[in-house]
Amino acid sequence: MQIGHVSDVWMYPVKSMAGHTVDTVQLDELGVIGDRSWSMLDSHGDVAWGKRFPKLMNLEARYVGERPKTRVFAEQVPSVSVRFPDGSEASSDDSIGAQISDYIGESLSLSALQPPSNREHYRWSQPLDEAAIMKILGIAAGEAPPDLSDYPEELILLLAECFAPPGTYNDMAPIHLLTTASLRHMAELSGESFDVRRFRPNFLVETNDGISGLAEFSWIGKRLQIGDVELEVAAKTIRCSMPARPQQPFDLPGNPKIAKALYEETNRFMGAYLSVVKPGSVSAGDEVVLLA
Questions:
Q1: How confident is the model at residue 95 (pLDDT cuts 50, 70, 90)?
Q2: 205-217 tens-digit pLDDT
Q3: Cβ neighbours of residue 12 under 8 Å, at least 6 residues apart?
Q4: CA count, 13 A, side-chain hemisphere, 95
């Protein structure tokens, strides 16, 4: 059943920094090739993301030249340029880590993706316990935790050990998809503007007339055909504090009412995580078909 089409295809060269739309991307089993190929790390080697350092979301990243066409790691990852709020730019070929550290106010370094075999690169300096995981998700002591029953136990255990699935800088899954139906639904419930750029999906799907509500939640356990790619809808996307934070590149102010609405209406979920069943390409305008 055809349920819509791909409205936006997003590329984020550096984790937690602003990205941009592109016409077409290639997918392999780890996700979108070229997406989140770089990340900031702290002095312990742990991921430095927008959850901890929200000022990262005021920076905008682009590849200096062409983005990679196949999955690459370490020194093979193409250079990126980062634009600062004052309009200045710096390249990953330069001393960009020091410049970003000065802006953030914390000693950070920029790191390219490492191969999955380098598991040590992705390990937390200290394994996370339940309290630490809840803190990352922005859940205060005493608050009811979200229902993570859709998430495989092995994934929860992996993310207690590693800050990302090895070979990626993704949060939890290869693909994050969001629908216009969900954006409209939450805007209507909250009276707030739910801008797609706050939620950082790989794909925004413009759903057909008649599809409403948190549409992607009803697709969990099913498969989607997009272009020549087949994807499995694995779980709801858990939201942290990042969507409510300011994002200067998009002139998006901070809005705590976004986080409040997600907490009250969806128990902090919006969008869906997907795994890649059949790799290939996805382009803006591709039809989205819900398979059996």
A1: confident
A2: 999 999 999 999 9
A3: 18, 19, 35, 36, 61, 200
A4: 5
